[in-house]
Amino acid sequence: MNVNVMNVDYSTKIPNNVNLSEDRQVLKALEGWHPGYIDWWHDMGPEGFQQSLVYLRTAYSVDPRGWAKFDYVKMPDYRWGILLAPQEENRVVPFGEHFGEPAWQEVPGEYRAMLRRLIVIQGDTEPASVEQQRHLGKTAPSLYDMRNLFQVNVEEGRHLWAMVYLLQKYFGRDGREEADELLRRRSGDADSPRMLGAFNEKTPDWLSFFMFTYFTDRDGKMQLHSLAQSGFDPLSRTCRFMLTEEAHHMFVGETGVGRVVQRTCEAMREAGIDDPNEVARVRALGVIDLPTIQKKLNLHYSLSLDLFGSEVSTNAANAFNAGIKGRYHETQIEDDHRLQNSTYPVLKLVNGEIKRVDEPALTALNMRLRDDYTQDCAKGMLRWNKVISTAGIDYRLTLPNTAFHRAIGEFKDVHATPEGVLIDDAAWQKRKSDWLPSIADGDYVASLMQPVMDVGEFASWIAPPKVGIDNRPGDFEYVKIET
Ligand SMILES: [Fe+2]
Ligand SMILES: [Fe+2]
To answer: N or C: less crowded end of the chain, CB within 10 Å?
Structure first.
């Protein structure tokens, strides 16, 4: 492995390990895009705190054994860079019609449009989440949490840079146009929204933020994993490094929800409340009742399932055949990696019942990735439920049925309960506030969102973390707020 590729060049305006200083044309294009990005960051990035010193990690290397350093940085001065995982020697296309051929270092002409579309869709989600989260700094439950929010935000900004680099380097003029469009669309905008539904929703409070980083960033993880398999090597290398950063985002979600659950259980124990459904009594303690946590979970999980697209999809089949987008852990799967003759069981509506039906494996790739996602989601939930059972409370957080609250795919035109029982419209209207956060639930959670900015202090509704970031103590000043 080449040392220059491992370490990042910080001498240019745009830190990188892709030798930008000798790639004048791309450097010029990126430098031309940079001011618009900074404008976007000021307009749509975190509201306030832009002059605060935040204890952030910045990548200085792509060596998995040690790649980041922590220091106080003002967010607008964060060094957003272009970092690709090291090139693997003799890498081949690991699936599809070109299985076994050398991986492409340039865009194959016949797949240009498809590749550009996938890169643009991925790129669009990155700034979208920053826009969705921009108000949250003002109500952070601690400096620790505020720091984590800003870390996620600057890294989503870097992921935008990662996609913009690919567009500008490999797609010429239309790549540059797409890069500009990525700064023009806005989450939730009526005229020019972000491309995917979940990225136009609001993130109104910190419980939503934790659910978002747990469920929606995890969709991102699955998409990045399948693009990391790509036969287009620069895309694969880009996504592999992004996954390194992405792990922290899901850590923030998993531990965030876990700490909320923990605080609720502790408060219930102290007050001698056994029944988690005594919502008013639990809320009187200044914590978030478990049924409301379940409703938030139902919302974010179902919105995130929609991100996988239709269960049966020819686009997914084409991208796989082309060697552009593979399966989760493709190279570890033991089969022919072509899937011409295999099938996969897909959830479908058959005569008013939800059933698994075998479909050609190629067209069922979205379903397969979504199944892998569901399994991945279930893991962290075991830890949340452990906290509840250890506290001696009789309650379990569960993932709702796939058919629940869907806007895309096989179940978009029906209503189902979280248990997967199909119901009519009248029953849905009557019951939906039992399953999804109501306005009153939202108002209650919003009422708890009072900022806590004293060093080492935490809001009433969330437990402190077990360990700090970068092995720092609990009372470490993660953000030095300007006065
Ligand atoms: Fe990202
Ligand atoms: Fe992320």
So the answer is: C
Q: Which ligand is nearest to the CA of 151?
A: 2
Torsion angles phi and psi, residue 197, rounded to 5: -50, -55
Tokens 């949490």 — which residue? Answer: 145
pLDDT (tens digit per residue) in 147-201: 999 999 999 999 999 999 999 999 999 999 999 999 999 999 999 999 999 999 9
Distance 220 CA to ligand 1 centre (A): 7
Whether residue 482 contacts residue 150, with contact meaning beta carbons closer than 8 Å, is answered with no
Distance from Cα 272 to the centre of ligand 2, integer Å: 39
The pLDDT tens digits of the residues spanning 260-302 come to 999 999 999 999 999 999 999 999 999 999 999 999 999 999 9
Of 283, 247, 246, whose CA–CA distance to 268 is shortest? Answer: 283
By CB atoms closer than 10 A (0-12, 13-18, 19+), residue 456 is middle
Report the separation in Å between the CA atom of 138 and the middle of ligand 1, taken as the mean of its atom positions. 22
Distance from Cα 240 to the centre of ligand 1, integer Å: 12
Count Cα neighbours of 58 within 13 Å in the Cβ-side half-sphere: 20
Those residues whose beta carbon sits under 5 angstroms from the ion ligand 2 are 217, 246, 249
Q: Residue 347 in 3-state DSSP?
A: strand
pTM over 0.90: yes
Token output for 108: 């194959």
Cα 170 to ligand 2 centroid, rounded to whole Å:
24
Task: Measure 395 CA to ligand 1 centroid, in angstroms.
Answer: 33
